[in-house]
Queue: 2 jobs
Job 1
Amino acid sequence: MDRQRRTNTAQRRPWQDEIYEDEQYYDAEPVEEEPLRESVEEIIATNRMVLLTCTLAAMLPPFALFLFFAEKKSRAMRHFAIQSLALTVCHMALALVLMVVNAIFGGIPYLGFLLNMWLWIAYIAAAIVMLILRVRMMFFAWRGARFVLPVIGHKLDRLN
């Protein structure tokens, strides 16, 4: 086969000396790439009134509670209401746990003060993370894209 290739290349004209793709990569297998699933947003709403309502539900937990019980038709409104309520419940549960720990160990001299200070720092950091998640949820709601909370979001989709 090499002899046949040499004779073919010897008989070619100068303008035929370029290497064709099939000759250069004749033994390479094609590589199939998986599309990135995380970069594709699932659009769940396009109506501006629904988008505004979803954004308000993501921003205001009392409004999200109202929408959770009142809205039965719009999947987008229920989705953002459930996500917002879950974020609020997580925030309140974390605050309750930190208050209980502070009440139990807060009376210890010196150690109680240090623990109280560290618990406040932890609460402020968690509140900042919750605020960032809520703002991100608002942006997704305004675009009409689906937003899922990082840890508990997939479990909440069963309620929808």
Job 2
Amino acid sequence: MSGHSKWATIKHKKGAADKARGKLFAKLIRQVEVAAREGGGDIESNATLRTMYAKARNASVPLDTIERAIKRGTGELEGVRYEAVAYEGYAAGGIAIIVECLTDNRNRTGPDVRTAFSKNGGSMAEPGAVAWQFERKGVLLVDRKIAEDDLMLAAADAGAEDLIDLGDSWQVLCPATLLGDVRDAIEAASFPVQSAELSMVPNATIEINDENDARKVLKLIDALEDLDDVQNVYANFDIPDSILELVEA
């Protein structure tokens, strides 16, 4: 789980850069739109939409932009119809990768993802080849200043399964279906939630002890995340702090 924890920290930091480029907004708007189309536009009765709505608001997406996305999803406004599609593959060192996309053209998205893999030392895999190595979970980041026992008490009562120290944040894991409940319980205890999202958490991780392999893996993930249709990239690596520091330097 440590690899996922470190990657969550990296992704959280990358979020600021994504926001500056405007890419994060576009991705979140798509997620809101699809959630509304699949489960309806009522935030209270559509748990997925409620999660995407909160995620968009946390990223400072304007409220009217979110509301228009919901209306496009429910058909009240015209718009492009997106569908969810996932791709699987491997990075250097046999690292398993899942790429989740929202696209209006599979004939564009598939080749783009395949090219990103092939140009960055990876390879595509058949559907199901790596997905069994992951489990969908609710993942929340909470301010590290909160006392561990206090946070665990509030989160556990709502169904949280694990609490991980990321250094500058707590990471709370829970069943995917309880993400909203756990978030509500933490906020009800007056603890600030930095982010809350559904994620594919690896059942086990592969440690990368070679700096070059680490660079290749992160370069591939960056290339995938830069694609407009890609929403999320998940991987099962664990990079020791000593190697991560060399890569980040």
